[in-house]
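Troubleshooting: if your tokenizer reports a length mismatch, compare your output against this known-good record of 271 residues.
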Amino acid sequence: MPLCTVGGMRTITARWFTPSRIERIRLIVIHDMEAPEGPLTAENVAQYFASTDTKASAHVCADNNSRVRCVPDVYTAWAAPGANADGLQLELAGYMRQSREQWLDEYSRGALDQGAQQVAEWCRLHDLPPRQLTRAELRAGLRGITSHVDVSEVYQRSDHTDPGPNFPWGIFLALVHTYLGDAEPPAEEETVTAPTWPGRVLRLATPLMEGNDVRRWQRQMRARGWSIDVDGIYGRASERTARAFQEEKGLVVDGMVGAVTWRTSWEAEVT
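Known-good structure output:
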């Protein structure tokens, strides 16, 4: 099987892929490997893709200490039906059943770090925004980062649910932003319990509303993967984010952060 090292990353070419693309790259899709963890997990899974009769592949596999290239970016990997033609597929060492604590143990921290480096490289190379898409945004064709479970739910062409409900998205995205050199990455830890609603409805107004409560809500939305500046000013970008969030959650879509939208912004994600 083809095996070489290119630019410091080992290459083990997958057996199954399409040697072309019919759509512009718009997505990075996160998967987990469902394979035993070890120092050669990425290599072992790449070897599986290279020899299996199952028609599956990914662009890159990452474990706690390395990344292995399986399919070039300019080719189409077979990993997430509905998001293959326009997606880049990243396999991370881990299991869907892992608890949050297991995703944050020493081994998985290394895998998250390797994966974040790859995602940052892809975002820079393909001009992709380093944010997790909501399912509504994925369905609408927006560009960014998604998961196999969200692809399954949106396109209904597979039943995979990785990387699982306990995947630490906030920490992973913070690492991505760090490797991109962002001055203010999203908060590393997701907060589940909402702080007390400030008692004023955050809304677009003249003059623009600003303050620590606006900044707190913006920071929480960014930690959940929304592309929003944490500047403490409730402008049009904040209103658009609020409307999209309200639509996704089935709330009244008014672009204002009242008590219900505020509380829902801190509720745990259900996948």
